[in-house]
Amino acid sequence: MANQVDGQSVGRMVAITKSDTDRFAAGIGLSCNVAGDVNVLCVGMTSPVVRTITAGPDYPWRVIAVYSTSTTATGLVVSYQS
Predict the structure, then answer these.
(1) What predicted TM-score, i.e. pTM, was given to this entire model?
(2) Would you say residue 1 lies in a domain?
(3) Closest CA to 39 of 29, 49, 47, 31
(4) Cα(15)–Cα(59) distance, rounded to whole angstroms?
(5) Is 59 a member of any domain?
(6) 8 found inside a domain
(7) Domain range enclosing 37
(8) Are 81 and 29 in contact, with CB atoms under 8 Å apart?
(9) Do residues 9 and 59 touch, judged by C-beta distance below 8 A?
(10) Close Cβ partners of 81 (under 8 Å, ≥ 6 residues apart)
(11) How does 26-43 read in b/e, with b if 16+ C-beta sit within 10 Å?
(12) Contact residues for 69 (Cβ-Cβ < 8 A; gap 6+)
């Protein structure tokens, strides 16, 4: 039997570099290897927000930017459907 994957499953993961100017395609999740604060901009937001995240879990945020300013978490990865 073939594996069945739903439309929200992760198809690829991309390590990202935090930047106060760069944007990237909106993913379906964000995770980190080392816990800390992330200053993120999500789809539909006009201003970023700082959140504290723990290492390991995938946060179901449609992030389009992770700012260098105020971000202390490291090993940031954005998940995409495909």
Answers:
(1) 0.85
(2) no
(3) 49
(4) 15
(5) yes
(6) no
(7) 16-80
(8) no
(9) no
(10) 7, 8, 9, 10, 11, 28
(11) ebbbbbbeeebebbbbee
(12) 20, 39
What pLDDT score was predicted for residue 82?
78
Residue 4 lies inside a defined structural domain of this protein: no
Number of domains in the chain: 1
Residue 1 has pLDDT above 70, yes or no: no
Any bridge partners for residue 67, and if so which? 39
Torsion angle (degrees, nearest 10) of CA 7, 10, 11, 13: 150
Going through 43-76 in order, the beta strands assigned E by DSSP cover 49-53, 63-67
CA-nearest of 2, 75, 79 to 38 is 75
Q: What is the pLDDT of residues 3-53, one digit of tens each?
A: 555 556 878 999 999 999 999 999 999 999 999 999 999 999 999 999 999
